[in-house]
Amino acid sequence: MILCDAGPLFALVDQTQPQHESIRKAVTKLSTPLITTWPCFTEAMYLALHRGGWVMQNQLGKLIINNMLTFYEIKITDYERLFELMKKYQDRPMDLADGTLVIAAECLGINRILTLDSDFFFYLINDSQPFNVINLHDLK
């Protein structure tokens, strides 16, 4: 199981992004479905709307329909931890979407993540375990 941040989702559907081809190749080599959270997907949808409109948003939607993407649902019991993480990493700062991915990692016991965000080299799962950030260059 692999977590997926908003950046790779957006790069996957926007062919003008420098990482588009690397992300596309990575997704074909990685086990799917990838796991994300609704805040990350919302962020990718927002970028897609402003960059390519409905056509690009539809491409993102097809990731769900084609079972390439699934969601970890943030629970009420996760909220306290989420805001604790955002406070802890306020110097980066940690946004809500990143916080939900850390929560998903903690709850699902996953440390692998597909991201373009260097902050995941600093975030810790359960305040102790680093993320295993997938290196796109290793997947070529």
Please give a structural write-up.
The chain is α/β, with parallel strands linked by helices. The chain has helices spanning 6-13, 20-29, 38-65, 79-88, 96-108; strands at 3-4, 34-36, 69-71, 112-114, 124-125, 129-130, 132-133. Strands 1-4-7 form a three-stranded parallel β-sheet. A two-stranded parallel ribbon has the order 2-3. The two termini are 20 Å apart.
Give the distance, in angstroms, between the N- and C-terminal Cα atoms.
20 Å
The CATH class name reads: Alpha Beta
Q: Any guess at the CATH architecture?
A: 3-Layer(aba) Sandwich
Report the major sheet.
3 strands, parallel
CATH homolog superfamily:
5'-nuclease
According to CATH, the fold-level topology is Rossmann fold
Helix and strand composition category: alpha/beta
